[in-house]
What we know:
Elements (H helix, E strand, L loop, with lengths): L2 H24 L5 H13 L2 H7 L1
Amino acid sequence: MDTTEKTLLGELPAYRRKHRTAAAAKCAPLTPGQRIADTVAATMGSWRFIIIQS
């Protein structure tokens, strides 16, 4: 790897953090129903749940 690649890879986490924060600021806050739906979807779609149900 040359120095340019190392520099870019070093800057990547800060770049991603900045854009993730900006994207989160644009989103409307989730309603309680949306948060519950997200939790249920995350549980039902997990490998642990699928294996237990199998």
